[in-house]
Design goal:
mainly alpha, 2 strands, single chain
């Protein structure tokens, strides 16, 4: 087999990536450099630091504005200033993965079963996923064809039930939360009907604000675990006030109308999250 050496400071009239004709240092179609060479180890490190670790890099600029400037990333993206920031979907996925990792690492109970509930009766007591949340009474009555599976689940020891529900939470809830993003955007579309905003703009806002929520919940969990004074309380307050501030920046409107829309949106999204958690637990119970 004939091998060809990698190009070293090779200038070309055609892009190596897409084949388009080029006349400058970057391809006008795909953006790749036209002068190529095999990078040294030092260049690899410099590129990594420059793009991901440097305080002025795209990552930290995005994170800083996401956490401290409510709605700014969405407003910037809508205005067409996009290259300087990490893409919205990547931001959402990054903080979503981080949150569920921290949640699991902290050992937060997400499927705690009441010992008294494991008696064979068709009732399961499950703790809400939010830290310190109230217990939810679910599955008190289910259709007759599913009663046998529910009774079989209730016949298991409480510890085994908790283990199964916890596994179901981490297996299905991240996907459920992602599926809720289009629904969150649909709520915004209804709340701002007549504003002229396209659905894609609402979806963009949904990705950014929910990414922020995942980031805040991660920090709250860490602050609680480390017992850092009132930091968890301060973070919780910022989590609550962030969304209406972001809504005003992106959508405008009076404080009163924004507050009403925020309250409705928060309620609808909370109910959707609970439904997603319920569905995840139901899969484990009925499997």
């Amino acid at each position: 087999m004939t091998t060809h050496p990698a190009p070293h400071d090779e200038e070309t009239a055609n892009c190596h990536n897409c084949g388009a004709a080029v006349s400058y240092h970057y391809c006008a179609l795909c953006g790749q450099e036209t002068t190529l060479h095999v990078p040294s180890a030092g260049e690899f490190i410099h590129e990594f630091v420059g793009h991901y670790i440097a305080l002025e890099g795209k990552l930290w600029t995005t994170v800083r504005k996401l956490l401290l400037r409510p709605g700014l990333l969405s407003a910037e993206y809508i205005a067409g200033r996009r290259v300087r920031y990490v893409q919205p979907l990547r931001v959402y996925l990054t903080f979503s993965i981080l949150f569920f990792f921290v949640l699991k690492l902290a050992g937060t109970p997400v499927g705690k079963v009441d010992e008294q509930a494991a008696t064979g009766e068709p009732m399961v007591t499950i703790q809400q996923a939010d830290p310190g949340g109230p217990e939810l009474m679910i599955l008190r009555a289910v259709p007759a064809p599913l009663q046998q599976k529910l009774k079989a689940f209730n016949a298991r020891p409480a510890a085994e039930q908790s283990k199964l529900l916890g596994a179901a939470f981490f297996a299905y809830v991240p996907y459920a939360m992602f599926i809720l993003m289009p629904l969150f955007a649909a709520y915004l579309k209804l709340l701002y009907a007549g504003s002229g905003r396209r659905y894609g703009e609402h979806l963009l806002f949904a990705l950014h604000t929910n990414a922020f929520a995942f980031a805040m919940f991660s920090l709250i969990l860490l602050a609680s675990f480390l017992n850092v004074g009132l930091l968890d309380f301060a973070l919780a307050v910022w989590l609550i006030v962030y969304l209406p501030l972001a809504m005003r920046r992106v959508y405008g409107g009076s404080r009163a109308k924004t507050f009403v829309r925020w309250a409705v949106l928060a309620l609808l999204h909370l109910l959707s999250i609970l439904a997603g958690i319920f569905a995840s637990y139901a899969i484990a119970v009925m499997a």
